[in-house]
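To the team - magnesium ion complex, inputs and output below.
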Amino acid sequence: MNTVAVVGTQWGDEGKGKIVDLLAADADIVVRFHGGNNAAHTLVVNGQKLVVRQVPAGVLHPGKICVIGNGAVVDPIALLAELDNLQRHSLLSDPQSFKLSYEAHMVMPYHGAIDRAREARLAKAAIGTTGFGIGPAYEDKAARIGLRFVDLLDMKSFAAKLERNLADKNAYLKSILKAKPIRGEDLLEQLKRARKRLLPHLCDTGEYLEDAIAAGKRVLFEGAHGTLLDIDHGTYPFVTSSSCLASALCAGAGVALSRLQAVVGISKAYTTRVGGGPFPTEIKNRLGERLREEGEEFGAATGRPRRIGWLDMVLARHSLRLNGAWGLALTKLDVLTGIDPLKICVAYEHRGQRYDRMPPGGALLDRMRPVYEELPGWSRPLDGVQTLADLPAAARRYLDRIGELLGVPIVMVGTGAGREAAIVLKNPFAA
Ligand code: GDP
Ligand code: IMO
Ligand code: MG
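Output:
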């Protein structure tokens, strides 16, 4: 297959960066199609760690083209800092290797200020956003007042739109949110400098991708966040502001639905979530702390401790159905070493009723009692195991049971943070 999407099936941080990096070896082009720098994808190669925020995680492979599609919201100033950092590592030095859609919307400092001020006002009811202004940037897109990269082609009208937005946002910040306004004096100058650097990378990415696919190039679409953070199908309102499904790549990269050949869903071997919202299988005791330590579960975007829970088949089925997954990549199996027994949530119960599916609209999710199945654990460390045969029998049993419960084959298994630490059972580009 030549066109493959990799998407998270949980609440983000499933290890998309690692799987994308692994699959990118066989791709020509890697594409981000939604979200912004609220995403943080970690790559570990030769013991060196690199976190990418807006640039696709294919970036470590020389000769690959990295594309940010129109569905993303991009902070131009943060993007430049990210590009500088990558170039310091001698990556993306060829200007042709990075393409940014003319139609992508810009995240501005006023978006971040509004995001943070709203969260502060919500206090205990806060969503727990990253505070990077992603929601307010998507709001402006839907309200048709957003600034797009194409607007940089006409700086006079860009400056006028920016001034109007700044005035409106500052009035909102001051009088409604009771927050400090944004100082706009040097913003235009900063954006002019960003413009100079970014213009050579701007491109009609939809057309570029269509031509590449037609020419037989292999394209890997990199989802950000996770299906449970999807604006429509996630645990609303504790979600992000974009569609996080594989199908979002059609709108978000400008690629026809019929072009997508396979979707790989990614899940950790347990569950994590950063920020507020329901989490039926959350583990709130020492075991949760232990998994947080051993799995290094601290947000790559904000450093916040991630909440930890058991694997949840109700939510996994929901996500795999929505994405039409061809296969599942299960990461961080190594982190479960030494935990016995292991639990898998197979259904929920609420007031005597059993739920095998997500309750409608995610309502009552915070009241659902998980029904667990227990499986034996294993004690031998898995670090870096690359074949099923080298896994302890109990680890194989755990994988088999997940595959059975989900009806979707497990195609990859993560056994450590490094690029090589994986069992690849089926590579979609070789299928
Ligand atoms: P993403 O947002 O989905 O790309 O995931 P993050 O990078 O935010 O978080 C996943 C974390 O788990 C990162 O620190 C990865 O290096 C790490 N990781 C990914 N796969 C594995 C694995 O199989 N085992 C272990 N131990 N760590 C992994
Ligand atoms: P990756 O791509 C984990 C969560 C935030 C918050 C909610 C809304 O690394 O998997 P936002 O700033 O998007 O308005 O925050 O969504 N969130 C993520 N959690 N990983 C992510 O991305 C996330 N992107 C957003 O923590 O709960
Ligand atoms: Mg992440």
